Structure formats: structure tokens, C-alpha cells
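Reading group handout, session on sequence-to-structure problems. Before we discuss, look at one worked example. The prompt was deliberately terse, the way you'd type it at a terminal:

> structure SpoIIE family protein phosphatase

The input record follows.
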Amino acid sequence: MGRSRDRSPRRPAAVAAQRGRGGDRRRWHPVAGLRSVLSGRSVAGQVFVLHVVIVVLLVAAAVVALVLQVRRDSINEARSRSLAVAETFANSPGIVEALQSPDPTAVLQPEAEAVRKQAKVDFVVVMDTAAIRYTHPRPDRIGKRFVGTYAPALRGEPVVEQIEGTIGELVQAVVPVKNEDGTVVGLVSAGITTEHVGGAANHQLPLVLTAAGVALALATAGAALVSRRLLRQTHGLGPHEMTRMYEHHDAVLHAVREGVVIVDGDGTLMLANDEAHRLLGLPADAEGRQVADLGLDPATAELLSSRRMATDEVLLVGDRLLAVNQRPIDRSDGPPGSVATVRDSTELRALSGRAEEARERLDMLYDAGVAIGTSLDVTRTAEELTELAVPRFADFATVDLFEAVLAGGTPDAASSMRRAAMTGIRKDAPLYPAGETIRFVDSSPQGRSLAGGRAVLEPHLAEAPGWQAQDAERTAQVVEYGIHSLIAVPLRAGATTLGVVSFWRSGQSRPFDTEEVALAEELVARAAVSIDNARRYTREHNMAVTLQRSLLPRTLPEQSALEIAYRYLPAQAGVGGDWFDVLPLSGTRVALVVGDVVGHGLHAAATMGRLRTAVHNFSALDLPPEELLGLLDELVGRIDQDEAQEEHSAPVTGATCLYAVYDPVTRRCTVARAGHPPPALIRPDGSVEYPDVPAGPPLGLGGLPFETAELELAEGSRLVLYTDGLVEDRTRDIDVGLELLREALSRAGDSPEDTCRAVLEARRPRRAGDDIALIVARTRALPADRIAEWPVPADPAAVGQVRAAVLRKLAEWDLDELGFTTELILSELVTNAIRYGGSPIRVRMLRDRQLICEVFDGSSTSPHLRYATMTDEGGRGLFLVAQLAERWGTRYLPAGKVIWAEQTIPQS
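And the output record:
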């Protein structure tokens, strides 16, 4: 690398000669180019070979992957088909009777063969519990022992295994045949060889190989075309042509009007073009010397010899302002050193001040987009605007909003305004403080800004009579304080005016000018969008909170079966769909329900209210928990269908529910859940467990029945119901949350209130992303001396005996004054049970907060209330019961029904 001034005078001649010698070499010859590509000695040839190798490897990998995938799919299909056929045959009608018949083979062999042929399996074998075959495709094997694993099937569990049989590699499944009481009375096995389900590979492999061949041919042709194009574009350049290109580049390097400086790793100047010599004032023999010895100013010499990166770093060299860009060259595996470009930017000095001011304004607008609107709170958003403007744009900034805006409503131009935010460089400014109610006069800058919908500039407040008319005393204090300039900008979101923003300058700050009005308008316009969003959110949030509070229970009903404490914690942002309820049922029973609707906002709260109302209505029917959840599931499905038909309505994206009914007489609790977390149970000794309650699907899926679990609870047990917000969040799996909840419950006190407090102290998240509903219910048992029960023979004469026994029990309970009405009620109910019901018949009387009379019979026919005519001999019994009792109704049992009636116990 030498100096440009030492270029050889023979170079032009050499270039011309080389141009003559290399003219033909630049011409493209197809045959020679193809030979160069296939030889592999050129870069294009190497790219061609590498491309072909990659395609071949990919094709081979695809074939191997296909073979493995087809084999795995064959085995999985064989397992699924054999198990499905075996289970279908084992559960087919009449198979139990066939197994118990004198000749099972005669009955089952034709059926098994028909199923085998229709299901396309290799065998369907029915055997007894000793694994002796009753059926087989080969009749000579009937009566022999089955070969395979069948012990788990005898325990009631299906088993699928892959074995090597006499007909090849096969998959066979063995499932139990159970009678009505669940006893295994036989076994069914179905099997299929993997080759019968793996035939797809024989059809897919030739197709894949054909496609691979086509892909290989296309890839080869493409690589050849790319290599040919590469050779054509380089024109077959050789060393001489490259030399000539270097000389051209060298000429260009010294002709450009930008200095280029190359320094090696030890600080020696290797190259400086003509423009670098001129701008830096380098001596003629600068190349080959140390940069520090060239007489440059220390800052320039330090930068050029440091090898550090620099981007448009401005240096003052003499009377020139130079912009230097420098990059190290050893980062690209080159020799150590650096390359710097130098350009004269002296003419930009006059514009640097204005450019810096414009940059600061752009930075402030960018920061406004980031810093304003971080929350959905109207007041906080207004404060973020004033905090951004002070002191970068103004010394003081105020935001005045209409009263309705702060509450989330639609602003009224005739109403007063409230100062939502105020920020300044000092705290003692005599401006209206935050929270002050203000009504601007029409002549004030703020009033004119609101009326005209545009910014108003008052560069000199001391000379602005319209502003002084707002409050003569306060404006005089403001001027005396030193505030001298103002820009008032209306805060508008679309066609809605939300308020006005005022920017103030004081002291030595220069007055606002017309150019700064545009910046103020842009700044306020960006903030207006965030404030309007916060206003809309506040309105929706207030509506949702109001709706949700009206839908959740405000007080719990009075009942004696459970001692209950509850907590409801809304999410940090918005309201959700978590809900709970306590519902007294007949026979002193109590229902506990807790549910969760996915989502937040009005839709979730409204859906929650609909579900809670539905549970109230369904519970009034005294339905079992699984039937109630089934009806609720159908309701959610209908809601989804209705919402889906409306363009702007969203269906229920998810809803869960847990319903539990506790009976203090039997101390039994029946629980069913639909996709909800399981309940927790705290035993009287303090141990905590999660009862095994079948997990049904979430509400709205439909098609699947719900199952129940029946728990026997000792008196003093605590049942804990909750929503998933207590045990699950984005950073923690639900299993971890359940274990943490178990630990919190194990440390809780004895009372439900202490339990709620301990759980929330231990498990409440710092920033709740979901609602939390929690119910803790401690069980009580109805004392035996408050329960009376008598069996009733199916004889009308037994009615008198029942009346006598009831009167004696009422006298024992000091309830003689209820004797007459109770005698009438039970007489009618028992007579109806004897006449229209079925055996067995029982009468039960419970003394709780009310006196409850119940008549059990074995019939499922429900009586109904009607009005008897004058000529009817009967039909007035239930009418009398309805008139005498506080409440009455029918409750269905698995075998029969209960007619019950409640009477209010007189207060002594």
C-alpha cells in the first residue's frame, strides 16, 4: 500500500494491454462454464456440489423419518383398533347372558367372527375367567388357554400388549366383561397384525421417492443455473483483471471528496487519500509514520490511533469542524488496525443549535408516547402529562378537566372544571391548586381555547387584560411571582373536549413563541388519547363494579347447618366473573356454590349474574348436584348460541362451577364440579385433604354427564371452596398453588373467619390478575333429640297413630300450639302417600329454625296443587297444606320422593 502520488506511470499502458488480452476471457461460453461448475475448483462448483449433497441428505432423512413414522402410526392404530373392538364387544348387549349360557361357543362364535370381519381385525376371542377360549377364528383352538397377558383384565383393567405371534408381529387387547354388580365374568381379546394397518407405507414410499427424485433434479438444475449466473456476472475474472480493478478503486479513493485514513495496529499511518491530507493538514511523507508524530491536535491523534468505534464524532481541526467515522478492521478477521473517514461539516455549525432543539422536541414527543398513559386512571394520566412537560418545555403545567370526565362520564361544556394535575419547578406558585373547582371566564386564554377548539398563546401575561379578568387578585399574584408567558391548549379526543392544558413560563425563561404552540398542541393531542381511554375505562369499570356488586350476595341467609365466612377480592384491573352463594334447601340442608366466568368487564359480570340467578332457580327445584350442573351446562350452551348469532356479542369463553349440598341430619355432603378446582377439607384434628371429586368438563361444552362424590363430614369439619385465582397464576402451576394452599390451611385457626384471614395473608398475590372468591364453612350436626321419625304401614288406620305420635313429640318439644296445624298437615300428606304413593312410607319431623314435616314414599309421582269444585269429594288436601305451612314442596330421591312442609316456630 503506497502513496497515491507514487503510482507507476506504466499502469495505464499495462491496463490497456491487459484489457486487450482479457477481452475474450470476459465473454461467457456455455460449455466452458458448465465444465467449470462440474469441476468443483471454482466457488460456483463448490456451491453446486454442496447444494446437491444437502438435498440428498434431506431426501434420505425424509425417507427414514417417513418409515419410522408409518411404523409408529401402524402400532398406535393397531392398539386403538384392537382395544376399541374388544371394549365394544365386551360391552355389547347379551354377552353376559351368553357367557352364562350352557354353550357359550355356539352363541358367541358367529358373533365374534362377524365382528372380526366387519372390524377388519385378525381375531376376536371370548374366554372365561380362566382364559379358556370360547371363540377363535381357528376352531381347533377353541377350548385352549389364551396366550398373552390377561391378569390386569381380571382385576377390571384393560390391557394392551405388542407380541410376536404365530401370524406375525401383532397388537392384542384384553378387556373384562362385567355383570351389573361390576364382577368380571369373562374376558374379550381382539388383535391385529401391524402389517394389516401399516400398508400406507407401501403406497407413500414410492410417492416420496419420486418426489425426492424430482426435488433432486430441480435442486441440481437450480444450482447449475445459479453457478452459471455467478460465472456470467464475474465474467471469469483472473488475477490480471483483479489488478486492474484495484487500480480503478485506487483512483476512485483519491478522487472522492471525503478523507480516508487507514492506521495499522501499532498506530502507523498506512494510507491517507488526497482529501485526508487536505482536511487534516498532513505532511507529504505522512504514510509510514506514527500518527502521534504527524503534528495533529491531541484529540484527533488520540482518536485515529485508538482503534475505537466512532460515529459522526465532531472534532475541531484548525478552523474546520470535521465529522469522523471510525471502525476497527480486525473485527472482520482482517489485519489489526482501523479505517476512518473524515468529512468537512463546518457549514453545519450554524444549524447545529436548531437541530439540537428539534431533536429535543422529537425526544419529548417520543417520551410522551411512552410515559403518558401507563395506567387507566384519569388523574394519573393528567399528572404524567405535567411531569413530562416540566421543566423540559415549561416551568409550570396544569390540566383542568370537566367534572364528568373524572367520573368517566361525557363532558358537559356548561359545567365547571376541576384542576386534575399541577406540576412546577417550585411548590409555592399562586396558581389554582390541584383539586380546585374552576370556571374560566370567556375572555381568559383557557376560555377562548375551549370555545375556539385551538391553542391560544399569551406571550406576555402582564399585558393580557382578558386573562387578568379571570381573577384580578390571583392574576396579580401570578405576575408578581414571575410567571410571564402562557399557552392554553384544548384537550380534545375526536369531537369531544375533555378539558384544557396550560403551560406557564416564569423567571429567566424566554416567552413562548408561535413555533412552540405546534409542539404544545402535538403534546396535548397525544395525551388526550390516553386520557380519553382512561375516561372510557373508568366509565366501564364503574358500570361493571356496580353491576357486580348488585349481583353478588350482600348478606348470607340464616341457617343452622353451617357456620360460614367468606371473602371476595376483585382483580387489580377490572372486574371479573368469580361468584359464590349460600342457598338454604329443604330438610335443613344447605347448598354452597362457587363459580368462575373467564374474562373481565361487563360481559363477564353479566354472565356471572345470569349463572347465579339460574343456580337460584334450579336449587329451588331441589335437584341433585349433578342434575343442577347439567341444566347449568345447557344454559351456558344456549347463551353461547344466542351470543354467536349477534355480530357484536362474544360467547362465554369459559365458565366453571362447584356445587355442594350438606345435610346436617346425616352429616353427608354431596359435591359435583364442572371444571372447577377441587374443594379442600379440614378435619377436626387439623389435617387437610383434597377429596376426590370427579372433575367434570367446564360449563358449555355439553354432551358429558357430571358425577358426584358423597363425603361424610364429622361435626366441626371445615369445607373450603375457592376460585382458581387463589391457587393459580401465570408464574405458578395449579399443583404448586394447591400445595401452598394446603400449608396455609394447616396453620389456620379453628373458626371460619380465622381460616379466611390466614389463607389470604399467606396466599393473596401482590398484584392480583384474577378475582378471588373464598368460602369456609364449618359443619354442624342437627342433634338427635331434634329428629323424630316413624315408619307408616300402608293402612289408612295408621294415620291416627301417626297423629298421636306427632302430638306427643310436639309436647316434648314444647310446641303444643303447633299441634293442630301439624296434625292437619301430616294427616293430609300421609293419607296421600298411602292412597297414591308406594311403600315404604316414613314420616320425619325436624326441629330447627322451623318445624319441618317430611313424608317419604316409594313413588316418583308428584302431587300438584289444584282447586276442587263444590261437587268434588277430594282434592283439597294440598290446598290446606299450602295454606297452613310457611313453605312446602317435593324432593325426589333415587327411590321415591319426599313431600315436605315448613312451619314457623313461635317465639317464646
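Points for discussion. First: Confidence is low (pLDDT under 50) at residues 1-28, 868-874. Second: The longest strand covers residues 168-178.
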